[in-house]
């Protein structure tokens, strides 16, 4: 479903990836792994129209996203949902308005319908209906992440991109978030691409993953393959932290 081919990325002439290749299958939960500063977020950004590769290509469903026509790009942007690493909610809007923001911007539903759709996503991510009128400052860390997830899902994307969905969560909330991500994939049949540092998520929910190290993709495959790979690349990764 998503194919990265020979992707080179640079910031101010400094190379971050020197020829990244990967292959994400439809319906899987795919992980982007690597040490801090290795370029996981940058790689994610090449798939969501935020960082154009210096060379190479990213194809989603056969379309080379950086070479598509502007209209085609606009359509594709509406088919992806994104939850950022430091994805702040709008502090002056309540939960329901935060979830509905993309719908207000990009859909033609009237405000009542938008509220109904936002409520549906609120329930889907496991929040109670009475939390819809709360403001971000009144939410726990886990609840904020769920609101951000509901916002990313609001336009019913085909691919969901998550940057460190568990960061800052206590272990119990992190496991609950893992179960939610799995449930969303299973019930909506979408593809999930996520950056993670969380060893439990790697073991529990990723179908396949890649590991970035020293500007290169040093591994792509599933957990079993990683554990059997020469010098298990996960061992390096977790020694590195
Ligand atoms: N907008 C930017 N301008 C210049 N350099 C950047 C920019 N964004 C990232 N970088 C650099 O690119 C490298 C990779 O950053 P990136 O954020 O992709 O890493 P990461 O693997 O997501 O790290 P972390 O685990 O800390 O989130 C880092 O050296 C970083 O300083
Ligand atoms: Mg990052």
Automatic annotation (TrEMBL):
Keywords for this protein: ATP-binding, Nucleotide-binding, Transport
SMART domains: AAA
Record's keyword annotation contains Translocase: no
SUPFAM superfamilies: P-loop containing nucleoside triphosphate hydrolases (SSF52540)
Annotated Gene3D superfamilies: P-loop containing nucleotide triphosphate hydrolases
Pfam families for this protein: ABC_tran
Keyword DNA-binding tagged: no
InterPro entries named among the record's database cross-references: AAA+_ATPase, ABC_transporter-like_ATP-bd, ABC_transporter-like_CS, P-loop_NTPase
Domain ABC transporter: 2-239
GO molecular function: ATP binding; ATP hydrolysis activity
Annotated PANTHER family: PROTEIN TRIGALACTOSYLDIACYLGLYCEROL 3, CHLOROPLASTIC
Name under which the protein is recorded: ATP-binding cassette domain-containing protein
Organism name: Campylobacter vicugnae
């Amino acid at each position: 479903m998503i194919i990265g081919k020979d992707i080179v990325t640079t910031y101010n002439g400094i190379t971050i990836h020197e020829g990244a290749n990967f292959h994400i299958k439809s319906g899987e939960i795919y992980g982007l792994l690597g040490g801090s500063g290795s370029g996981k977020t940058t790689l994610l950004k090449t798939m969501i129209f935020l960082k154009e590769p210096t060379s190479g290509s990213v194809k989603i469903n056969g379309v080379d996203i950086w070479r598509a026509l502007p209209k085609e790009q606009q359509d594709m942007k509406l088919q992806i949902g994104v939850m950022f690493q430091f994805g702040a909610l709008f502090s002056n809007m309540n939960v329901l308005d935060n979830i509905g923001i993309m719908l207000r911007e990009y859909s033609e539903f009237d405000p009542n319908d938008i509220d109904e759709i936002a409520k549906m996503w609120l329930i889907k991510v496991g929040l109670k209906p009475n939390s819809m009128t709360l403001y971000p400052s009144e939410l726990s860390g886990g609840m904020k992440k769920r609101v951000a997830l509901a916002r990313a899902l609001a336009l019913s994307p085909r691919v969901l991109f998550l940057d460190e969905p568990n960061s800052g969560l206590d272990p119990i909330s992190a496991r609950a978030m893992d179960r939610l991500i799995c449930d969303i994939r299973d019930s909506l049949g979408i593809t999930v691409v996520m950056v993670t540092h969380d060893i439990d998520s790697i073991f529990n929910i990723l179908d396949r993953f890649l590991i970035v190290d020293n500007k290169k993709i040093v591994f792509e495959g599933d957990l079993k393959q990683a554990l059997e790979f020469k010098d298990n690349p996960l061992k390096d990764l977790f020694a590195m932290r």
